[in-house]
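Objective 1b. Sequence-to-structure analysis of DENN domain-containing protein 5A.
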Amino acid sequence: MTTGFSSNSCRFADYFVICGLDTETGLEPDELSALCQYITASKVRDGAGRMSVSEDEGENFEQSPLRRTFKSKVLAHYPENVEWSPFDQDAVGMLCMPKGLSFRTQADPRDPQFHSFIITREDGSRCYGFALTFYERVTSAQICSAMQTLYHMHNAERRHGLSLARLRRLDSYDIARDTLYVSKCVCLMAPLAFPHACRQALEQLHRAVSAPRPPPLPLESYVYNVLYEVPLPPAGRSLRFSGVYGPIVCQRPGPAELPLFDFPLRDVLELLGVENLLQLFTCALLEIQILLYSQHYQRLMTVAESVTALMFPFQWQHVYVPILPASLLHFLDAPVPYLMGLHSNGQDERSHLELPQEANLCFVDIDNHLVELPEDLPQFPNKLEFVQEISEVLLALGVAPEGRPHPCEGVAERGTRPTSESDKRNGNLGGGSALDSHLLRENETIARLQALVRRTGVSMERVEVKDRASSKKDLKVQCDEEELKKHQFNVHVREVFANRFTQMFADYEVFVIQPSQDKEAWFTNREQMHNFDKASFLSDQPEPYLPFLSRFLETQMFASFIDSKILCHDEEDKEHTLRVFDARVDKIRMLNVRTPTLRTSMYQKCTNIQEAEKAIEMRVSKIDHTALHPHLLDMKIGQGRYEPGFFPNMQADVLSSGPTTNKWAKRSAPAQWRRKDRQKQHAEHLYLDNDQREKYIQEARTLGTMIRQPKLSNLSPSVIAQTNWKFVEGLLKECRNKTKRMLVEKMGREAVELGHGEVSITGVEENTLIASLCDLLERIWSHGLQVKQGKSALWSHLLHYQESKEKKDATPASVGPPGLIQDLTERRKSDAGLAMPPLKVSLIQDIRHIQNIGEIKTDVGKARAWVRLSMEKKLLSRHLKQLLYDHELTKKLYKRYAFLRCDDEKEQFLYHLLSFNAVDYFCFTNVFTTIMMPYHVLVVPSKKLGGSMFTANPWLCVAGELSETVVLQVPKNTLEITFECQNLGKLTTVQMGHDNAGLYAKWLVECVVVRNEITGHAYKFPCGRWLGKGVDDGSLERILVGELTTPSAENEERPCRTPPMQQSPGMIRRFVTISPSSKPKLNTGQIQEGVGEAINGIVKHFHKPEKERGSLTLLLCGEFGLVWALEQVFQHGFKSPRLFKNVFIWDFLEKAQAYFESPEQREMAQDENWQTRVRNFCRFMRAINSSTRNIGKDGKFQMLVCLGARDHLLHHWIALLADCPIMGQMYEDSSLIKDHTLVNSLIRVLQTLQEFNINLEASLVKGIGI
């Protein structure tokens, strides 16, 4: 996609370049390319376990001289230099002939090959190159004899064991018999991408030198014309200029249209198919590393440009090298997001291709119709409907949605076309008929699409493609028919893609946070600022969109898009893409009747294809501008002659500068063209009108990554080292930014201090941030690897460490390092006598835990699970420090320049990770919900009445947010059990009781402690109550609510800033009459405040997104929860009971029930509402009393409150009880329940619960059938 081009140019082309063999320097081996070939060949041999190359398999590194790589040179370029686009000789030379010179004989195919390339400068501006490579006969006798000598040497080395006939069958060259040809390249460098026009111009120039008759004018006239006399077409206009043999037409979109894109999207869809293209598109949007792989350079460029063009209005912000020269293969080691293209020789299989990192890589084998995706790739929103819409468009244009392999573009590029059998991967079909119904039926994805498309009335068996030419007979087109079809196809597909983003981000402006401070301060704090309200935006989105959108909002491309929105206050300032996108968004808002901020997941198809198509047809039916025709130049007699079949070096004196009177060169263009040029500056270059904005753009580009684009030149060891050093700095900066972002989101306080209100992190967002941290760790561990093993570099390192430690531990005398033994910390003195032994801190043990999880099948998945587990245990920094302090292993696995061997940066990196210990993550527990987990339970009896005489058999049942256990029997002697069950999630309650057996079945329990043996999370469930008949409230079982305990004394000094879970009310809610004076007595104001806080907690709970709500049980039954608050209401003014007689709230409720059910009361005439309330109250009381559970009187009161809250009856019952005559017998006159004003206030507060659907945990209402 054309963005960021050099805006000062108004010429169609800046340079004309000739590359090829420099006969003066002779044959020079391309050492870097040869080294890369050697390394690749060695890896293929080693990987397949072949230590020597057998005769039948041919050669790998020891290539025959005709197949070796030799250096090409830029032989000439015209003009010498232009101020707005300095000539980069190294980069142009590399990309014109990425694999250097190649030689052929008359027996080899020598068809010309066209490819385009792009050079991205360090400031982000781009220029395009269009190269035509052809073969010329070698006329230099020295070169021919040098080649012959090389063959003699080569054959002498190979002669051992080979017959003469076999030698002749191999590639050979005989100076007496064969004609030697060498590749040569002509290239146009241009500010904008017009591949079709440039290809025509170059092919016509080549035809002129290879034709038997010379062209009408010297070649210099045509080159001069295209360099100096052909202008860039203005936005929204078309232009015609003359080639050697015919006119060439190009056109450019208008200010309201999608940006310029002239590559054939049809080829991409035929090569990959809709399904694969959409997966690749999703990877690009999420800034995943992408490697394209093909035998054809032009395919690499076309696919790369197509994917980035389809991203409109977003732009790829990272390393972008669609064609990676052979000498730059070390750049695949880059630990940053990239989009690169790698040339294939057509012989190596994918399995032999060793890539530095594959944990987060999207590998696209273009020629074989194959896309390999990273794990956990979220689905693009509305994917099925989107695929259907694109498929309908393709079918209408005569292209099969599943794609089909292209025939080879030139026989010179050798490679076999995949068979239909081998090409059925990823839901794509190849070979045979594109719409073979039998194959369609075999393939599920296509079958689904077929059914969808049939419903629209289009037949899949025979697609009737409308003949556009016949339907538009009046339209006289000035360009060739194929070119028009390409433009129409492009605009159809691009509009469908653009419409998706317009629909998804129709309301994005509402969530943009404009900076409150001045620009300079904003630039300074740019990395810390939130410029988009992500949480609010995501809360408005349909649920299925969230996995994709939460990751997309974290990308650099989205951040840059929002930054440019903030920077551009008026229309004139806006970049072209932003202006076009905002205009489309405004149009959607006007058309849509829905509320601006209300999102809908209803799929809305693209409606403006016709309009865009019409604009193109108008431009090509009437050409707006015609350039000057080529003419004779002021050349000396004898200049301009050349030998047929050889492309000459041009006359530098006539091509070095343009005409002095040329209006394009002197900028005396008409006002309209100047205006168009200004729009062009906004459209396709990040042109900024002041220093501050220029400074910002440069900083924003390097945000998170210190290197944006490799410099394709001067590849000395020092430059490579400097590049690697930039990578190390970039990784450290990215680590710092990521850890800070995660902590700010998790804690919220810093964000509030920055003036962004209350920040809450959603589960989806937290998951996204942790996934991106895992990706960063994989990139750090992949940087500078000596030998790659497996897809995850981090997991591979952990396994090497495990292996080395287990070997050491196997030797009897060895003693493990201190970190492996135990992290013993003293228990708090206030804790009970019985103590649960602390978990051993062991890196090896945590690796084994992950290895034992059968559900995780891949190395990448295991590495991510290990990172999540370490974060949850607050051991990530400690474990990685232990791993990296095995210097011997690190040296063995990593090269000297690797990040993990840069000591200062490594220390800072571990320090940043240490900051995660300040917050509680449940990123392992919440993600791996189906795995089996071991739990350890310890029952702590009272110190004073330890229960040594206790004769009953205790049991318990543990419940968490995900599930609960069956009833577990506890041995009465040990009071400890370990059990394994499916992940319970965060633990919420423990039901505990005994069977009342034996002589002394009374038990005073202090607390229960339950620990997850994998994550180390320990939950304490306070009790402080008796279990037994005739003691306390007579309960044989209790429901205890837990809190997460702090694991060590070290953490107690620096308390966690995440609010702790609420604890069980058992310690506070003692029975009323044991010692009335010891309880803190609350006044009516404090009780009202307590009720208000409890209700507020529940209301806030329901206003959070469903997945982020946590446990409602804690808010109902925990400390200062609703049950506790209503207990305070009923205990206030409760009359002191008689001596030695315990009276509970439940006693009062039972008396009230007896009163309501008495015959006298039934005879009294009351209104229907009152009677309904009484019936409900009595029904619930009877159900709880008749339950088989022995939960005691306080347990029954808790159950009644929970059921009343669930069925929205609490406020009715309070009104009933306040008017009940029993009140007078059991409450003093000063009690809260007798004050009508306070009771009415209480009823109003309780009524707020009516709008919420309260679902109770099964443990709270077990045994109740209502």
